[in-house]
Write a structure and sequence with these properties.
This protein is mainly alpha-helical and about 350 residues long. It has helices at about 25-30, 45-55, 80-100, 115-125, 130-135, 135-145, 150-165, 180-195, 225-230, 245-250, 270-280, 285-290, 295-325, 325-355; strands at about 30-35, 65-70, 105-110, 170-175, 205. It has 14 helices and five strands. Bound molecules: adenosine-5'-tetraphosphate. Adenosine-5'-tetraphosphate (AQP) binds near residues 37, 177 and 225.
Length: about 350
């Protein structure tokens, strides 16, 4: 099918708020978006700035499918805690809404509630060369140092390709770390299309201008990451952390042996703090330079802390309303799975028919 095409409009989804002012035709031209987060730990500032915030900022212009990708959380079997995984999946979904996603206009669901994801993965597996998967940098870093690596860890990007392709997705908003997987998704879809006809649309990654790669507070050379945060207390600010803990993490952020902010040779730690501040406030870098040039690191950290708290506080307040009403959350997720299935099933049927399987 080549380049992304005019998106298929949301079938039967009643747009509300600003979207309700649009004609059906205009609504039908919103690009289809798919994205998701793994429930493998506590969502942090990197997940928020790299993914969630762009979902929220563009939600009215796009036709969105957002997923909690719980099947992806099974790739390291030593780390599976079944009860915790179920709870985490619901927590992540509640955080999507707490971050500002409108549950009426966006399709939000849990991946394992829609069977088509696992089924399409098999079809895609059968034509994905192993060499493509061994090249993935995330596989290399996640398998590094492990005695035993599951097939699932290697195959994770194929499941991700299935997630995306099932929705005729055009745009995939992600942080920089995921761009290679979206390129792989395009390669797999292109191969399928070449072998079996026009089955899949080709998606594109969209990476935010700011916040695409938030680094660890304790080590600004590595990406802020849920798995590292499980091992190291001062690595990340989590969206649900109490203020006292956020304060310790930010005020203890690694900078360098200098005293004052210097823009001509800012160290990675100082650059990370400035980048987070820029991303949270949306202020131009020149204004930030004027604000901080020559200021002590203590002032910089305090100001970044305030900006983080201004973002995190309302998210935590809204989160509580979802956490306090689990039945309502479940109902929204059940409806989301139904709406997702209504899109995914015909695409899966198309992919199966193309290779000669299925009814
Ligand atoms: N540090 C980051 N900076 C910018 N964007 C980030 N994302 C994650 N970390 C950062 C983006 O958030 C989305 C969700 O990613 P995920 O949780 O599904 O997978 P991940 O990228 O593997 O996230 P983590 O925190 O590193 O989790 P673990 O340690 O479990 O693997 C993606 O769009 C990602 O780009």
């Amino acid at each position: 099918m080549g380049e992304p095409q005019t998106p298929v409009g949301p079938s039967g989804q009643a747009p509300v708020l600003s979207s309700s002012l649009m004609s059906d035709e205009a609504a039908a031209h919103k690009p289809r978006v798919f994205s998701g987060v793994q429930p493998t730990g506590n969502l942090h500032l990197g997940t928020y700035l790299g993914a969630l915030r762009q979902w929220v900022d563009h939600q009215d212009e796009r036709d969105n499918v957002f997923c909690v990708v719980d099947l992806h959380a099974l790739t390291v079997p030593e780390e599976i805690d079944p009860a915790d995984l179920t709870a985490k999946s619901r927590e992540v979904a509640a955080l999507y809404f707490a971050a500002g996603l409108n549950p009426e206009t966006n399709i939000v669901f849990i991946q394992s509630h829609v069977r088509a994801h696992a089924e399409l993965t098999w079809l895609l597996n059968c034509l994905t060369p192993l060499g493509w998967l061994y090249r993935m940098t995330q596989f290399k870093s996640k398998s590094d140092g492990r005695e035993s690596v599951s097939t699932g860890l290697l195959d994770y990007p194929v499941l991700q390709a299935a997630d995306i392709l099932l929705y005729d997705t055009e745009l995939v908003p992600v942080g920089e770390d995921q761009v290679q997987h979206i390129e792989l998704t395009r390669d797999i879809a292109t191969r399928y299309n070449q072998l079996f006809g026009d089955v899949f649309k080709l998606p594109k990654a969209t990476v935010p201008k700011m916040g695409a790669r938030v680094m660890g507070f304790d080590d600004p050379e590595v990406k802020m990451s849920k798995s590292i945060a499980r091992e190291r207390d001062r690595h990340a600010v989590h969206l649900l952390d109490p203020e006292s803990r956020i304060k310790k993490t930010v005020m203890g952020a690694v900078t360098d042996s200098g005293q004052e902010v210097r823009f001509d040779h800012a160290s990675p730690g100082v650059r990370n703090l400035l980048g987070i501040y820029q991303s949270l406030t949306g202020r131009p870098m020149e204004a930030i330079e004027t604000e901080f040039e020559g200021q002590g690191y203590g002032t910089l950290k305090k100001t970044v802390l305030e900006a983080i708290m201004e973002t995190v506080r309302p998210i935590q307040e809204r989160y509580r309303t979802y956490a306090d009403d689990p039945a309502q959350l479940d109902a929204v997720l059940a409806r989301g799975a139904e709406r997702a299935e209504a899109i995914a099933e015909p695409v899966l049927a198309r992919a199966k028919a193309a290779v000669g399987v299925g009814r």
